[in-house]
Amino acid sequence: MKKILFIATVESHILNFHIPFIQYFQNKGCEVHVATKLGNRRDELKKLGIVCYDIDFERSPYSFSNLKALNQLIKIMREDKYSLVHVHTPVGAFLGRLAAKITGTKPVIYTAHGFHFYKGASIKNWLIYYTMERLAAHWTDGLITMNDEDYNAAKRFKLRKSNAVFYVHGVGLDIDKYNISDKNERKQTRKAFGFGEKDIVILTVAELIPRKNYIQTIEAIKKLVNKDKNLYYLIVGTGELESKLKNYVLKNDLEKYIEFLGYRNNIPDLLNICDIFVLTSLHEGLPRCIMEAMAAGKPVVATDVRGNRDLVKDGTNGYLVPLDDVNATVDALQNLIESEDLRKKMGDEGRKIIQDYSIDKVLKEMDEIYRRLFI
């Protein structure tokens, strides 16, 4: 029986993005192993029949724990003799490819979910991550990207195989899961949250971390509520900035209009009750939350950065606004607030665009890549 190894720094990455691809190999009779830093969700992996290895990964490339992680990867590769290794996340991907190089394990496929070097990134990021990726490319048989900027950057790397840089439409989305069109259900759910039919509900689903740049949206909401008292902003997610952002909202007397919902697993329901989705990130790979909003038929306001611009076509299914430009964010949101017809038109366009990102289409794209490099 052929053995396949998936590597990612944290288990949530495997569970959130890679189960369909793991099952792809299981359906072909392969035994799938996962090497990651296991946490409180390890039982979810084991229930799927996946062999799990707990690796001492740290996200920081400077951590000495990653030397231990490298040795752990070398050990399991020598013991299990994998027919294919598929690596993800910067640190996990680098160490996985290095271990495969040391043990002579081939082929190795790397999916870049968003290079840490990008237009506008710090010099430090370019020095560390660009160097890592350029070096590890020599140990890579196939490199998969998800946005135009990364694809063009990857084509400059020298891989072990020629013409082995690929573009796929993300990790795939179960589009039907988000297509809730029952107006009565929307009305009842909004009522349960305390929203009336004339209220405008804006939503963000993202971690509360610096990269998501929530302040740009909050400042825009602050200006908008001075004009429209029937405007509400829901924030779904947890993270290191939670206390700081909540204090900022209180300090600016916005607690009536901005609500933090924490972690939620009913994202389709929340998308159903909202009118506009917003994401003002500093940078992205290919944001799943925007994909979900598009599948739900919601117009999107997003910053004009890598990843966002691959999904949002300015003036078609939403608006792209400059980074840190609060006034442009206000104007974009205002256009959508004032016109239900525009919201519907842009939402419908988003539904059309997102069809290319369905899990069925992405599985077909990945099948072609796997067949070329492995099967």
- Rg from Cα: 22 Å
Count of domains: 2
- Terminal Cα separation, in Å? 13 Å
**Widest sheet: strand ordering:** 3-2-1-4-5-6-7
Describe the structure.
It is a single chain. This protein is of the alpha/beta class and 375 residues long. The chain has two domains: 186 residues, Rossmann fold, CATH 3.40.50.2000; 182 residues, Rossmann fold (3-Layer(aba) Sandwich), CATH 3.40.50.2000. It has 16 helices and 13 strands. The protein has a seven-stranded parallel β-sheet with strand order 3-2-1-4-5-6-7. α6 links the parallel β5 and β6. The longest helix has 16 residues. InterPro entries: Glyco_trans_1 (IPR001296), Glyco_trans_4-like_N (IPR028098). Pfam families: Glyco_trans_4_2, Glycos_transf_1. This is Glycosyltransferase family 1 protein.
Question: How is this fold's topology laid out?
Answer:
Elements (H helix, E strand, L loop, with lengths): L2 E8 H7 L1 H8 L4 E7 L4 H6 L3 E4 L10 H16 L3 E5 L1 H14 L4 E4 L11 H14 L5 E4 L2 H7 L10 E3 L15 H11 L6 E6 L8 H11 L6 E6 L5 H10 L6 E5 L4 H7 L2 E4 L8 H8 L4 E4 L4 H4 L6 E4 L4 H13 L1 H15 L4 H15 L2
Parallel strand pairs: 1-2, 1-4, 2-3, 4-5, 5-6, 6-7, 8-9, 8-11, 9-10, 11-12, 12-13
Provide tags for this entry.
single chain; 375 residues; alpha/beta; Rossmann fold; 2 domains; 16 helices; 13 strands; 44% helix; 17% strand; elongated; glycosyltransferase activity; Glycosyltransferase family 1 protein; transferase
